């Protein structure tokens, strides 16, 4: 899997949690904050860190931010700074922006600005956000103890029209299929407990359980 380049703007608790998780997943992470102390604290953890005013388009351009695969705006102290940073990123042509909203009003404002990916403030979602950044097909991720994980992903096309017994999730990938969600009438319905003769169809969502490394290998092979 090609190494992702991701910038995290705002190195408070939430931004730091996401940045650390992304590094753990093998991403090339730039940490950005206006506080020199926060940048200094993470300089040996992240790929590189920069102290700058993220609302300044010229400062962002100096760090080649448009070349990033994604930019996470995790600013929490000032919604005005978040808005100005969002605008600056849009001005310089950043294609994928993920912004933090602390309430419904902030979420609606960001949506009006055209931000399509908006995250909540709880640290518990940082694992899922990080996984989604690394693997866009991941819709939900829950990290468990001992490097295990449960993820919900869109069924890869290589699995369509195949029976579970033919796919060999457990034999080939050391993974367990928890259930399948089938798309019907603009929504997904849980099929229940999967059986060996269950057929994966186009549009299905699959929920799988296993070690993080095995899940990543499965998604890499079947992307």
List keywords for this structure.
five-stranded antiparallel β-sheet; 9 helices; elongated; 223 residues; Alpha-Beta Plaits; alpha/beta; Rossmann fold
Summarize the structure.
The chain has helices spanning 13-24, 36-41, 57-62, 79-91, 104-112, 126-134, 164-167, 169-173, 212-221, and strands at residues 5-9, 28-33, 48-51, 70-73, 97-100, 117-119, 138-143, 148-154, 162-163, 176-184, 187-190, 199-200, 205-211. With 223 residues, it is an alpha/beta fold.
Structure overview:
With 223 residues, the chain is α/β, with parallel strands linked by helices. It folds into 2 domains: 5-134, Rossmann fold (3-Layer(aba) Sandwich); 138-221, 2-Layer Sandwich (Alpha-Beta Plaits). Helix content is 33%, strand content 28%. The protein has helices spanning 13-24, 36-41, 57-62, 79-91, 104-112, 126-134, 164-167, 169-173, 212-221, and strands at 5-9, 28-33, 48-51, 70-73, 97-100, 117-119, 138-143, 148-154, 162-163, 176-184, 187-190, 199-200, 205-211. The strands form 3 sheets. A 6-stranded parallel sheet has the order 3-2-1-4-5-6, with helices on both faces. Helix 1 (13-24) crosses helix 6 (126-134). The model has no long low-confidence stretch (mean pLDDT 86).
Total domain modules: 2
Structural class: alpha/beta
Order of helices and strands: EHEHEHEHEHEHEEEHHEEEEH
Name of the CATH superfamily of the largest domain: NAD(P)-binding Rossmann-like Domain
Average of per-residue pLDDT values: 86
For the report, how would you describe the main beta sheet? 6 strands, parallel
pLDDT < 50 stretches: none
CATH architecture of the largest domain: 3-Layer(aba) Sandwich
Radius of gyration: 19 Å
Q: How many angstroms separate the termini?
A: 10 Å
Spatial order of the strands in the main sheet?
3-2-1-4-5-6
* Number of continuous helical runs: 9
- CATH top level assignment of the largest domain: Alpha Beta
Strand content: 25-35%
């Amino acid at each position: 899997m090609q190494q992702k380049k991701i910038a995290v703007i705002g190195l408070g608790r939430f931004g730091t949690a996401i940045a650390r998780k992304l590094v753990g997943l093998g991403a090339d992470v730039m940490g950005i904050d206006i506080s020199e102390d926060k940048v200094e604290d993470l300089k040996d953890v992240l790929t590189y860190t920069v102290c700058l005013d993220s609302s300044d388009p010229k400062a962002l351009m100096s760090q080649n931010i448009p070349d990033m695969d994604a930019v996470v705006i995790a600013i929490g102290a000032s919604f005005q700074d978040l808005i100005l940073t969002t605008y600056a990123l849009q001005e310089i042509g950043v294609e994928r922006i993920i912004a933090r909203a602390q309430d419904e009003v902030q979420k609606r404002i960001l949506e009006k600005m055209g931000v399509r990916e908006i995250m909540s403030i709880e640290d518990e979602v940082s694992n899922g956000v990080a996984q989604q950044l690394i693997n866009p097909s991941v819709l939900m991720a829950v990290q468990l103890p001992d490097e295990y994980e449960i993820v919900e992903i869109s069924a890869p096309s290589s699995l369509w029209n195949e029976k579970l017994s033919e796919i060999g999730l457990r034999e080939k990938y050391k993974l367990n299929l928890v259930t399948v969600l089938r798309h019907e009438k603009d929504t997904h319905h849980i099929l229940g407990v999967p059986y060996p003769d269950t057929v994966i169809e186009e549009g299905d969502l699959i929920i799988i359980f296993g070690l993080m490394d095995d899940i990543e290998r499965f998604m890499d092979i079947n992307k």
